[in-house]
Amino acid sequence: TSVSPPARPIARVRPLTCTETRRGDRRVVHSLGDGAVHVSAARHDATFGFSAVFDAGASQEAVFEGSGMRQLVELAIDGFSCTVFAFGQTGSGKTYTLMGPLAQSETQPASPALLGLMQRSFACLLEQSRSRGSDLALSASYLEIYNEQIRDLLSPGPPCALPLRWSKTRGFYVENQLSVDFESLEAIVSLLLQGSQRRRTSAHALNRHSSRSHALLTIHIRNRAGHQSIIPLTRVPQPSACPSKQGTLCFVDLAGSERVKETGSSGELSVEANSINRSLLALGHCISLLAKPRGKWTHIPYRDSKLTRLLARSLGGSGITLMVACISPSSRCLSETLSTLHYASRARRVTTRP
């Protein structure tokens, strides 16, 4: 398999909402085709380039096929560490792009046409595994970072904080996180929905279903040859001494950046927003430093937040990363939109060694 560029940023512009249309917001973001996005507003006239751009009319299937997601799944099967993360202002469509409609559940599944990158990738992974005749062992872990605490979304009982450790062989890792084996599409989708329902969300002025945590779902892909079978609902196994390909496919749904003044948040919501913004600022700082020519920086401050520690390998190590910049076209969101676009543009210059 040919390896794709280590950091591949794409952009998705959501439609104007009914509230924005009624309010009279203008559309200030336009797709120009050929991977270009143009922002046109008072005192702002700028064009940004991406690997691909999807406008308001793009279907979920078009985003999956046009983003290079299928190739990323194949690379994970071949033993690479692959990461997809969606970022942008709160209410910009990150969770919808990754998962589809928020109202779906095991008893009320979403329409197949509305399923997001995650479910489509799971189907692609299982299809590839069968077509290759590979004897793969698949398992999943699902975490959230809430107010700088890491919590397991798959463990039974109330979520409790897990310690984040570092070792020379594994890098940063979460101790005692649960890993669940799966063999079917139904099983992994069930884990996704169960975990997502436990994730912290709240309503505020910009989003009735705002994610208050960063969520990381990781698919671990191992060749069975040379490995002992793993009992379902066991802790994440230690790396085996037997050489074989072990890939990962990690989906990161970042909590949305937000201005407390715009959301009307106070009390606990305000504390959550400040925690979210601090971790996103730390991530942006790491990306800015990584984007500089090699030799211009000596230290990347991954330890500034739990989020950057967990994404260290994806951003600056041996990973291959798809970055999905989710954008509102509304004139009211111009400042946050420009921030997201600049953020993604810097990421294009990040180079890793997959």
Brief sketch in words of this structure:
With 354 residues, this protein is of the alpha+beta class.
Could you explain how this protein is built, in words?
This protein has 354 residues and is α+β, with helices and mostly antiparallel strands. It has one domain: 3-Layer(aba) Sandwich (Kinesin), CATH 3.40.850.10. It contains 11 helices and 18 strands. Strands 1, 5, 6, 7, 8, 9, 12, 15, 16, 17 and 18 form an 11-stranded mixed beta sheet that branches. A hairpin with a 3-residue loop joins strand 10 and strand 11. It is globular and about 60 Å long. The relative contact order is 0.22.
Helical amount among residues, as a percent range?
A: 25-40%
- CATH homologous superfamily heading: Kinesin motor domain
For the largest beta-sheet, the strand count, sense and barrel status come to: 11 strands, mixed
Number of helices: 11
* CATH arch. level architecture: 3-Layer(aba) Sandwich
Distance between the termini: 13 Å
CATH class: Alpha Beta
Explain the layout of strands and helices.
Blueprint: E1 7-13, H1 18-23, E2 29-33, E3 36-41, E4 44-49, E5 52-54, H2 60-66, H3 69-77, E6 81-87, H4 94-99, H5 117-132, E7 136-146, E8 149-152, E9 161-162, E10 164-167, E11 171-174, E12 178-181, H6 185-198, E13 201-204, E14 207-211, E15 214-223, E16 234-235, E17 246-253, H7 260-263, H8 268-290, H9 306-310, H10 312-316, E18 319-327, H11 334-347
Parallel strand pairs: 1-5, 1-18, 6-17, 6-18
Antiparallel strand pairs: 2-3, 3-4, 7-8, 7-12, 7-15, 8-9, 10-11, 12-16, 13-14, 15-17
Helix pairs in contact: 3-5
Features:
cytoplasm, ATP-binding, microtubule binding, globular, 18 strands, ATP binding, alpha+beta, 354 residues, Kinesin
